[in-house]
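Late entry, written up from scratch paper. The run itself happened at the end of the previous shift, but nothing got recorded in the book at the time, so transcribing now.
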Amino acid sequence: MTNVTTEPATAEPTRARRRRAPAEDVRDERSIISTMDRKSPLVRGVVAVAGGLLLVALVVTCAGPLFWLFKAATSTSTETLAQPFGLWPSGLHWENVTAAWSTVRFGTYLRNTLIICAGSWFFGLLVATTGGYGIAILRPAYAKVVEIAVLATLFIPGVISLVALYLTVVNLPLLNVNLLNSFWAVWLPASASAFNVLLVSRYFQAIPRELFEAARIDGAGSFRVFWSLVLPLAKPILGVVSLLTIIGAYKDFLWPLLALPDHDLQPISVALPRVESSTDLGVFMAALFVSVVIPVALFLVFQRQFLRAAGSAGAIKG
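Output as recorded:
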């Protein structure tokens, strides 16, 4: 009879641990500091100090200019010029903020900015979603040609098309309407973003085709598929496009300067540089501070939605 030797039940887990050991060693070797080095108190102390210094440097770099702007906005002009880094020698001067609303007419310019941002956001989403839907979902015979043409416009510098765009706004083709000194002159060019159209179309292409086939079998038309199926699934990318569009419209300077020569229609980005020379420094700094705080506050309020949208964009297939 043949003797059969049976290995203990613990032999297989032992071999598995041996097989996993090299992988763990590789993971340790990939880091700058190995696991053994981290056990040293000196190494842990150096890492903690370096991390603290890096955190302080980031805070100073990011929040330092905003804090100084707040300091200048609540100080007198003499204090800002004589002691740029002095912390309120004569106390906080909140009257600069109230003076900015009356002297600089900050409220009027803020209203114009919000109108421009709202219109650019609405028409930008309209063009991006319908254009992306046509290229990625409807896919007509000429869809590839349109996609290549849209992509080609990204390689054209905006300064080159500035004169042609201005002449188009002065005399709108077919309608023969002059759009200068109207918000339409800013809304329409801002909505025609090739980057947003391509970004949305790439996201739509990641949606499983089986969903559209099932919807069409149930009798849904193209508009019903777009409104009830595509848009609800596209909330992440719509959040990203909304953020990019609003920020771009808020900080745009050159085109609103050309399209809105009327001072009563100009946004903050155009009006504040114009009134700088005729405004008290403290009041002007207060107006700058409020204009900077608004987008920062909006991001802090909606940061969870923005980060979730940016992180989940394109994650449909995953």
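Residues 179 and 185 are 5 Å apart (CA to CA).
(Scratch paper discarded after transcription.)
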